[in-house]
Amino acid sequence: MERLETKLIHAGEPRPRPEGSIAIPIYQSATFETTGVEEGYHDVRYARLSNTPNHLALHAKLAALENAEAALVTASGMAAITTSLLSLLESGDHVLAHKVLYGGTASFMKQDLPGLGVSVGVIDASDPSTWRKALTERTRAIYVETITNPTMEVADLEAVVSFARENGLVSMIDNTFASPVNFRPAEHGFDLSLHSATKYLNGHSDLIAGAVIGRKELIRKIGLKLDHFGGSLDPHACFLLHRGMKTLALRVRQQNVSALELARHLESHPAVERVNYPGLESSPSHARAARLLDGYGGMLSFVPRGGLEAARALCGRLRLGALAPSLGGVETLVTRPAETSHVATPASQLEKLGIPRSLIRVSVGIEAVEDLLEDFDQALG
Ligand code: PLP
Predict the structure, then answer these.
(1) Does residue 371 register a pLDDT over 90?
(2) Rounded to whole angstroms, how far apart are CA atoms 218 and 143?
(3) Residue 6 Cα, ligand 1 centroid: separation in angstroms?
């Protein structure tokens, strides 16, 4: 089997190449001539049904990257997440979810699912002994993230898969932070892997997209819902995402190296109280991360000494690290999750979840790591 780097360049692409074109052309056409063999609405060749040549190439490439059966791209990471959950759950059903999740996912579960009759049981995904009592007769799925945002914890992912199998649940994992370079959920038995392709997969902070990768029959089901909900990706965005993905392995491997170096540097800095990064020996997730991941990723978070004021001042002094939400691009971005991704979480809960207002999250880019260390040093004073 070809290796990941080769699949990024070649997998899923039409052969022979259309008109000999080395890059896949953008099929900027809303509709296509009928072939006469369509069996119904979902088979009609129409861009909202995610079946242009740009979509099909991405689907095959993404499935190949995670060694999964099938994949589907969506108009955003949230479209991937919400369409998947709404495909699997109906009124009366119940889903188990880790207590720390991306803010948008957490808000959807808390604010939108209950109104549709779906209840959510919050679990500590690092403590399997507590899961059984959270199970109900109507529990259908269990939902975790590979590396939690923004505390950088790697939960007991192996136990999640076996618990899901024992109890007939669909195991779902948001693999955005790890990317297929560092973790491939299907290889560990997960049914569905979700991505904000806005982040590492595209890698250039210039589009919004999502992906669902996993078991064929589930992807088919989610695809049919996506056709109805309409959250499909435009062919031009498909082209950009495909172009960005070509360099995924080069980018992420560099980010693995740079983030580890920056994490170690910050950990030894007298003006820093605490650093969260699974690659550090001090991380409670280190042993598990070392066993499961091929790299620790480009995301870290830290608390500077001096509380909120110190954190605010530091962010303002950074010259290379731009103060912006989002992550996974070639440029270093910093953000304070309490005011961005987790702004909807009540202040009283934030501390308990390990997200004080002074916590700074860093998405490490591919600048020279020496320059990044110098930038953080001058900002820390
Ligand atoms: N999952 C994670 C881990 C994220 O960080 C984000 C966005 O920040 C999303 C999902 C949502 O993705 P999008 O903004 O592409 O809808």
Answers:
(1) yes
(2) 15
(3) 27
Question: Residue 243: which residues within 8 A CB-CB, separation 6 or more?
Answer: 23
Helices 53-65 and 235-245, packing angle to 10 deg = 30
102 lines ligand 1 (CB under 6 A): yes
* 29 vs 239: CA distance, rounded Å: 13
pLDDT at 341 over 90: no
82 lines ligand 1 (CB under 6 A): no
- The count of other CB atoms within 10 Å of the CB of residue 94 is 19
Handedness of CA 241, 242, 244, 245 (dihedral sign): positive
- What is the Å distance from ligand 1's center to 16 Cα? 35
190 with 84: CB under 8 angstroms? no
Residues whose CB is less than 8 angstroms from the CB of residue 6 and which lie 6 or more positions away in sequence, other chains included: none
DSSP assignment of 220-261 = HHHHHHHHHH--PPPHHHHHHHHHHHTTHHHHHHHHHHHHHH
Active site residue 48: yes
| Cβ-Cβ contacts under 8 Å for 281 (sequence gap 6 or more) | none
Average pLDDT of the chain, as a whole number: 96
Residue 316 tokens read as: 């303002």
| pLDDT tens, residue by residue, 292-308 | 999 999 999 999 999 99
Catalytic residue among 7, 27, 48, 288: 48
Q: Annotated catalytic, 246?
A: no
- Ligand 1 and 304: CB distance under 6 A: no
65-79 confidence digits (pLDDT tens)? 999 999 999 999 999
Give the predicted TM-score (pTM) of the model: 0.97
Ligand 1 center to residue 106 CA distance, Å?
11
pLDDT score, position 38: 80
